[in-house]
């Protein structure tokens, strides 16, 4: 009789303890998720941050070589953003950056990586068909230009298709950071070249 | 080598007078020239008669007594009268200090002064329930002790039951019945070692007390009704009684160091709160535990071995053991005492308590324990 009671009590006790463990673990998971999101996201726009982007970029490079897949790195830099901040204040500037972020997010798929590199620079790691890219980027530019037409807000972009040309880089460099730096610098040059062209400087 | 002589005797006679006479006759054979007697009386005896008959039969004022529903004489469990008779062989002595009513405003200070001025001696405290105030008294007393470590105070709460509107957990001295206070037996010129055996293993992760008042625990963690948790633990049992929860006392963790500081045994379950046999406080953290008789006995053995390592050959052993613990030990109740007497090779005198008093793990403070077994091995210097 007592043995049966003890077994029931122990069973119920273990159930209670398990419930408490589950609750504890789910609480911890939610805190961890929140902390993780804070670590990988840009706090203003909610896009991924530079650190996360770079981490994913390296994994994507490895995957594209392994599986022979193409992907794009697209860099965006806003034109005439500074006057918005200067004339209309930082709140308006922040609002503009958030709108840009929304436009970028809505023009790529959920598994593409859209990140804010810092300031008014954005970068995207996307798997899109070659035929579509130019048209899609132009659409994005048009949408961004509608945000603040009175200050002629626009965007310049440059992109690089990977892993085209990547084999040369990988043969010459083995350091992960160096490879990333070279790729980012390459796409940055393309974007600035386009910006200069756009402004009629060339 | 001369040591203090300790003899343990008992009688289960229903008449107090004849029980005392039976004990006296045995004592006359074994230790006629005793120096001090410590009695345990079952509350079934009319307490008004105790002082009269002790004086009549033993013709001495060197005695104290207290209520206990059961006492231990070696490995026997007695529901009558039992006694520990002591005869000093060197310079040992026993002084009796008492407080008649702990609600007297100077009782705390008086007790603290007494203990502070006798810090090299062993103090055995035996208290009544004192309307559930004795544990708060102990806590406040502990704060007033000016010495450290506190490893010389041990004791327990007399066990009894309610009869004619009184809770029979009294102490007795020559010409005195103490109903709302306590007695301290101070042993001088003795070596001693205290052992504390908990034996209940903690389970699961920690709860935090969010709402408590005295002995009542209302809410834990995120405002969860603790009564609901406890009721769930009794689910699936036909006609559950609160005693079943004595298998799972809560282990209150030390505020600073996180070790299991003390046990609290559940006394009653109400809709909105659970009542314990000791105080619980907001902010305290605890785990549930589960008592298995072999775990308890294993810790008893470890405790006895530690005491033996320190004192080697005690003249006698005092034991304070909680009633709830005895419930969990079931058919092994006598095993606990057998372990103590077989390990320490000395006569044992002990009794069931409604709470135990002893130092904490690091001898920083005095604690009020539940469901614990405390032993003290004593040897004349």
Could you explain the architecture of this structure?
The complex is a heterodimer of chains A (202) and B (381). Chain A is of the alpha+beta class and 202 residues long. Chain A has helices spanning 2-40, 50-67, 82-88, 90-107, 133-145, 166-172, 176-198; strands at residues 48-49, 71-79, 113-118, 121-126, 154-162. Chain A contains 7 helices and 5 strands. In chain A, strands 1-3-4-2-5 form a 5-stranded mixed β-sheet, with helices on both faces. The mean pLDDT of chain A is 89. With 381 residues, chain B is of the alpha+beta class. Chain B is globular and about 65 Å long. In chain B, the strands form 4 sheets. In chain B, strands 4, 5, 7, 8, 9, 14, 15, 24, 25, 26 and 27 form an 11-stranded mixed β-sheet that branches. Chain B has helices at residues 16-30, 47-58, 107-116, 134-144, 226-233, 293-311, 323-329, 333-344; strands spanning 5-11, 36-41, 63-67, 71-73, 76-78, 81-87, 93-99, 122-127, 153-158, 162-163, 166-167, 171-173, 176-178, 182-188, 190-197, 201-213, 216-220, 224-225, 250-253, 260-264, 266-269, 274-276, 285-290, 316-322, 348-359, 366-369, 373-380. The A-B interface holds A 2, 5-6, 8-17, 20-21, 24 and B 203-205, 207, 229, 232-237, 244-245, 247-248, 288, 290, 330.
């Amino acid at each position: 009789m007592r043995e049966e009671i003890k077994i029931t009590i122990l069973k119920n006790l273990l159930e209670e303890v398990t419930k408490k463990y589950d609750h504890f673990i789910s609480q911890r998971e939610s805190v961890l998720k929140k902390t993780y999101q804070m670590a990988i996201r840009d706090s203003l726009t909610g896009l991924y941050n530079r650190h996360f982007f770079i981490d994913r970029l390296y994994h994507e490079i490895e995957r594209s070589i392994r599986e022979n897949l193409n992907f794009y790195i697209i860099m965006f830099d806003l034109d005439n953003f500074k006057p918005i901040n200067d004339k209309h204040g930082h709140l308006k500037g922040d609002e503009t950056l958030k709108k840009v972020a929304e436009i970028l997010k809505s023009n790529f798929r959920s598994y593409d990586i859209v990140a804010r590199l810092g300031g008014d620079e954005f970068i995207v790691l996307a798997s899109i068909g070659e035929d579509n890219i130019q048209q899609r980027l132009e659409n994005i530019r048009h949408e961004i230009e509608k945000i603040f037409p009175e200050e002629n807000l626009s965007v310049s972009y440059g992109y690089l298709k990977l892993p085209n040309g990547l084999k040369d880089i990988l043969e010459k460099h083995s350091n992960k950071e160096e490879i990333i730096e070279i790729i980012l610098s390459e796409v940055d040059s393309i974007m600035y070249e386009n910006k200069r062209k756009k402004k009629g400087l060339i | 080598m001369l040591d203090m002589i300790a003899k343990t005797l008992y009688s289960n006679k229903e008449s107090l007078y004849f029980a005392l006479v039976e004990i006296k006759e045995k004592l006359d054979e074994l230790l006629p020239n005793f120096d001090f007697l410590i009695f345990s009386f079952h509350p079934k005896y009319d307490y008004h008669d105790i002082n009269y008959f002790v004086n009549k039969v033993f013709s001495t004022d060197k005695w104290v007594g207290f209520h206990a529903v059961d006492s231990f004489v070696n490995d026997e469990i007695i529901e009558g009268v039992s006694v520990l008779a002591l005869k000093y062989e060197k310079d040992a002595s026993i002084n009796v200090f008492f407080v008649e009513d702990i609600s007297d405003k100077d009782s705390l200070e008086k007790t603290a002064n007494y203990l502070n001025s006798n810090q090299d001696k062993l103090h055995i405290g035996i208290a009544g329930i004192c309307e559930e105030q004795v544990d708060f008294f102990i806590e406040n007393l502990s704060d007033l002790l000016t010495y450290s470590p506190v490893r010389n105070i041990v004791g327990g709460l007399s066990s009894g039951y309610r009869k004619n509107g009184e809770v029979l957990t009294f102490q007795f001295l020559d010409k005195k019945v103490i109903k709302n206070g306590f007695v301290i037996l101070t042993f001088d010129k003795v070596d001693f070692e205290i052992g504390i055996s908990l034996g209940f293993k903690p389970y699961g992760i920690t709860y935090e007390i969010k709402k408590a008042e005295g002995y009542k625990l209302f809410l834990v963690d995120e405002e969860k009704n603790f009564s609901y948790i406890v009721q769930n633990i009794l689910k699936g049992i036909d006609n559950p009684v609160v005693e079943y929860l004595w298998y799972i006392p809560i282990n209150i963790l030390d505020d600073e160091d996180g070790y299991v500081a003390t046990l609290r045994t559940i006394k009653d379950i109400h809709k909105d709160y659970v009542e314990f046999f000791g105080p619980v406080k907001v902010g305290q953290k605890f785990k549930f535990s589960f008592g298995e008789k072999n775990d308890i006995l294993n810790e008893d053995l470890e405790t006895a071995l530690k005491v033996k390592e320190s004192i080697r050959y005690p003249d006698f052993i005092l034991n304070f053991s909680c009633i709830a613990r005895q419930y969990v030990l079931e058919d092994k109740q006598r095993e606990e005492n057998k372990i103590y007497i077989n390990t320490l090779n000395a006569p044992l005198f002990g009794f069931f308590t409604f709470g135990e008093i002893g130092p904490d793990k690091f001898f920083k403070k005095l604690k009020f324990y539940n469901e614990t077994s405390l032993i003290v091995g004593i040897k004349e210097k």
